[in-house]
Write a structure and sequence with these properties.
By secondary structure, the protein is of the alpha/beta class. It is built from 11 helices and 12 strands. Strands 3, 4, 5, 6, 7, 10, 11 and 12 form an 8-stranded mixed β-sheet that branches. A two-stranded antiparallel sheet has the order 1-2. It has a two-stranded parallel sheet with strand order 8-9.
Length: about 325
């Protein structure tokens, strides 16, 4: 078959099926991924093989093996779909009329997010920012699913491995701190062991919080049994935890970024934690196929946050 005949015969759905089978080495997994039946995938692969007059896959028992011809086709097909996503994302950006969608962790939102947007608006006054506050895992998932353009979050590497789809830059560090009411017996201390929490009523976060997951990991590392902690209340968000501590309900371990403003206005006292395992990195992330205006915004955020995050607690 001539090259121009193959060009006229193949379609994007056949190439999509080929890519899915090549990536999964399974017709059934490819069918699930594409939300179609396995026979439909097989028909599309057969049609593509007929168009090129080449065998792209071989079956060996229960295994699917990509042939040398299939390997040659794989790289340009990947490049084709990468370029197609770039076209789609570029047009979505144009249609959004200068809207930038951001997912951000509560810690960054409470600390320096608004001031960062104020600075960016001086450069781009027509931009509208749509913001969703979430934990690290959901923020990353929203970014990968093209439900946001940029994510700012800590990374829970063991629970959510880094995706090859994302460009990731570390912008600073956050650290855990113990917060106490102003009149609390610990309020005259500058540094305490995290084991101190066992001695006083404690206000916690729900398990899906990135900070709470870090606290749980730190407890485990230094031998604190969570059942020994006198938890009196659990809240969804850091602001509620901080207000509960301010009202004297108990003490808590939170992000320094979350608590910094509350200490500055005199609501609570922050104490540095002695154990060195209490620091965690903060990242800015975009998809690698992001359009130019999102890349420009990403670079602005990286530069701004590197100047404003990660200073050690004095």
């Amino acid at each position: 078959m001539k090259a121009e005949d193959a060009y006229n015969n193949i379609n994007i759905k056949e190439l999509e099926a080929f890519l899915a089978v090549a990536e999964t080495l399974s017709f059934s997994k490819a069918a699930n991924k594409l939300k179609m039946s396995q026979p439909s995938v097989s028909v599309k692969i057969k049609s593509l093989e007929n168009s090129f007059n080449r065998v792209l896959f071989k079956r060996d028992g229960g295994n699917v093996i990509i042939t040398s011809d299939g390997q040659r086709l794989l790289a340009p097909v990947k490049e084709l779909f990468y370029s197609l996503r770039k076209v789609i994302n570029t047009m979505k950006t144009v249609s959004k009329e200068n809207i930038i969608r951001i997912t951000v962790s509560e810690a960054i939102f409470l600390y320096s997010f608004q001031s960062m947007l104020e600075e960016h608006r001086k450069l781009c006054p027509d931009v509208q920012y749509q913001t969703v506050i979430g934990n690290a895992i959901t923020n990353i998932e929203r970014l990968e699913n093209n439900e946001s353009d940029l994510a700012l979050a800590g990374w829970v590497a063991k629970e959510r491995p880094m995706s090859g789809k994302l460009k990731v830059e570390r912008v600073g560090y956050d650290e855990l701190v113990l917060i106490v009411p102003l009149q609390h017996p610990l309020s005259n201390q500058k540094m305490v062991s995290i084991k101190t929490v066992k001695k006083y009523p404690y206000v916690g976060r729900k398990p899906n919080s990135g900070v709470q997951r870090t606290v749980t990991q730190v407890f485990k590392l230094i031998g604190v049994n969570p059942n020994d902690v006198q938890t009196v209340a659990v809240f969804d968000d850091a602001s509620s935890v901080i207000m509960a501590v301010y009202r004297g309900l108990g003490i808590s371990i939170v992000s320094k970024l979350q608590a910094a403003t509350a200490e500055k206005i005199g609501l609570i006292k922050m104490l540095k934690i002695k154990e060195k395992v209490s620091k965690r990195p903060i990242f800015a992330m975009i998809r690698k196929d992001a359009p130019h205006d999102i890349v420009d915004f990403f670079e602005f955020c990286v530069n701004y946050l590197r100047k404003n995050l990660g200073e050690p607690l004095k």
